[in-house]
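SAMPLE LOG
Freezer: B-3
Tube label: C17
Construct: single chain, 202 aa
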Amino acid sequence: MTQTEDAKRQLDELLRRYLHLIESYLQQREQCHHSMKEGFWNMTQARFALGRPDAFNATDYDQHMTAQRVIAITEDGNMCLETCPQTKQEEEEVALDDEGKRRDSEDASDVSLEQDDTVGSRDTNLKKDVMNSSSEAEGEMPRARRDPLFWFGVLVPPTLRQAQSDFVKSVQHMVALTNVKRELNQLHADYLRLYKATYSDK
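STRUCTURE (predicted):
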């Protein structure tokens, strides 16, 4: 009798959890639908601002593009968005390059202040260094920034930036929906198994 009552309490708890997840699933789906709708609306507004109904399509950017984020599966089986290793490495390289350039500029400033007697010759050398560093920076600029918005130019409409944000949110909602759906399926299987084990003899 005690085992039966305990099994019934477990069934009630599983059912309560199941109903809670259904509510969460419906909310996530509604938010995903809203983000997708807003994203396409803002995309239309951006095309209207440029006067090009066919703007921002696959023919407007380099076909060698790569994904910045991928969907990974964690140890517990859930899905999550992760930054690609290539993107992380490029960001670290850019940060190191910026730090190195900052230190070089500080060292050059310290040297120029300490040695006033050789200002003329040192100014000439500094000008050459600046010209060389600027040419190197120009060569590194395409690698430094990989924001997909810049595929379509530098001055993009604000509505296109908002569309990007909306679509990113929709992808996050899709990942959350997948995780909730997976947990719902597991709870359903657990409920049926416990139900059959409890009432199979009756």
